[in-house]
Automatic annotation (TrEMBL):
Biological process annotations from GO: proteolysis
Protein known as: Site-2 protease family protein
Main localization (coarse): membrane
Family per similarity comment: Belongs to the peptidase M50B family.
Coiled-coil ranges per UniProt: none
Organism: Streptomyces wedmorensis
Lineage: Bacteria, Bacillati, Actinomycetota, Actinomycetes, Kitasatosporales
Signal sequence annotation: none
InterPro entries: Metallopeptidase_M50B (IPR052348), Rip2-like (IPR044537)
Positions of transmembrane segments: 12-32, 38-57, 85-108, 128-150, 162-180, 206-228
Molecular function as annotated in GO: peptidase activity
Metal-binding among keywords: yes
């Protein structure tokens, strides 16, 4: 009885996550109905809270896949409750990605759930656990862009279109960055089980710096241009015009003057 009760408690959705979800719902309603006095502030709160929700789902996907792969400790660690405060580095997992969105306007890979790798048997399981997080971002992006690629925008308010486009942009950038086969990112976790022991030992000393190297490379003009060209191509394939995403990012920055093109 105690074990069953404990397990139910380990999987109960956290009030913290429910509170974030409530903020997303209320501010999304405010954007949709044009209820807010400051539309940009409503878009900012809606996109930020939705972004945090997506971060929680990203980590939940890792943890849930690990649970089915053999790591039964993820429940006791609180990873199945969707509580962002349960992550190994709450600041790096949530605060830093949110700050990066505010400052840089791209979805920064965040989150840290500690998986006991020794409990996972089989290379495919290890790869799938690493891939699960970015795949959650991909699914989130598909949901956000569904009105665009389904040509179902009739009745969708302009401000809400802008917000969805920018939120989808964050998901796409996060997924693409995270899938890079660079140590410290999920993409490396996908390929690592298939590397030889010798190669892994050679890469290991650089693993703590991989993420920071990627961020530094984004400041190189040629790399930055190539990265955003790829993002723009993906967004267009999802039916989202570049101007719509741009206006979403401009409304998000409610503290700046909104260009005339993006007035709602």
């Amino acid at each position: 009885m105690t074990t069953a009760t404990t397990r139910r408690h380990e999987r109960r959705i956290s009030p913290v996550f429910l509170a974030i979800l409530a903020v997303m719902a209320v501010t999304g309603w405010a954007v949709w109905t044009d209820f807010a006095v400051l539309p940009g502030l409503a878009v900012f709160l809606f996109v930020t809270s939705a972004w945090v929700v997506s971060l929680c789902l990203h980590e939940y996907a890792h943890a849930r896949t690990a649970l089915h792969g053999g790591d039964i400790t993820v429940g006791a660690k609180g990873y199945l409750t969707l509580n962002p405060l349960a992550y190994t580095h709450a600041v790096l997992s949530v605060v830093l990605p949110v700050l990066f969105v505010i400052m840089g306007g791209i979805g920064l890979p965040g989150g840290a759930v500690f998986i006991e790798q020794g409990r996972i048997k089989g290379r495919w399981k290890h790869s799938l656990i690493s891939a699960a997080g970015p795949l959650a971002n991909v699914l989130f992006a598909l949901v956000c862009t569904a009105p665009f690629w389904l040509d179902a925008l009739d009745g969708v308010p302009l401000a809400f279109r802008f917000a969805l486009a920018f939120l989808a942009f964050l998901q796409v950038t996060a997924a693409l960055l995270n899938l890079l086969p660079v140590p410290g990112l999920d993409g490396y976790g996908v390929v690592e089980p298939w590397l030889s022991y010798k190669v892994k030992r050679q890469i290991e000393p650089y693993a703590p710096y991989g993420f920071f190297i990627v961020i530094a490379l984004l400041f190189v003009p040629a790399v930055n241009d190539a990265f955003f060209d790829a993002i723009d191509a993906l967004m267009r394939s999802l039916g989202v015009p570049e101007a719509t995403r741009y206006c979403g990012s401009q409304l998000f920055r409610f503290w700046e003057e909104t260009p005339e093109l993006c007035q709602v």
